[in-house]
Amino acid sequence: MTKQMFDLKPSQYKCLCASNSESIPGFQHWRNPSKMSKTGTKITFYEDKKFQGRHYDCDCDCADFHMYLNRCNSIRVEGGTWAVYERPNFTGYMYILPRGEYPEYQHWMGLNDRLGSCRAVHLSSGGQYKIQIFEKGDFNGQMYETTEDCPSIMEQFHMREVHSCKVLEGAWIFYELPNYRGRQYLLDKKEYRKPIEWGAASPAVQSFRRVVE
């Protein structure tokens, strides 16, 4: 992450991200263009619909940006795939946003205009995807392995819940309802022995799919 030098007055806030928008008043910061574009990731949050009002630019993980914007009604993703969270510190409802424009919060299936943190999603370098899901915790019970999206776990695997899983390749999203609806959970390449390890309070998973650019 590129370190930044800030000239802050008492009434100003220090940005947690590697870059921030000139539209946020009072910030004076040093920039190195070659460093800023190194990751190729960028997301812009707007207070109003259709990319209007104050905005906040981000090109790295940011644990708390809600102090800079009162609300978020539209988003433009210019590079990378991003996970945006309802509250600071990557908590609350999460939404996965690939490259594109989202003129209203309903376009990212948002419940309201509140967002507080974001992080870039690290995609599979070789385009490989593989996941194993288990009907019981600690990788017990019936196991199913797939490399493809699944709009209905019940229809495809005859499972009502997922109690543990292993992400062998790529990044995946779990959804609490069929057809990629409901609360979302981002799973990186690792093992998850129980639902709480992917951030869920229950094993209610009814669909899942790959995170792709």
Automatic annotation (TrEMBL):
GO terms for molecular function: structural constituent of eye lens. PROSITE patterns: CRYSTALLIN_BETA_GAMMA. Residues 41-79, 80-122, 129-169, 170-212 form the Beta/gamma crystallin 'Greek key' domain. The keyword Repeat applies. Keywords: Eye lens protein, Repeat. One of its GO terms (biological process) is visual perception. It holds the Pfam family Crystall. It comes from the Eukaryota. Belongs to the beta/gamma-crystallin family. Crystallins are the dominant structural components of the vertebrate eye lens. This is Gamma-crystallin S. It comes from Myotis myotis. The lineage of its organism: Eukaryota, Metazoa, Chordata, Craniata, Vertebrata.
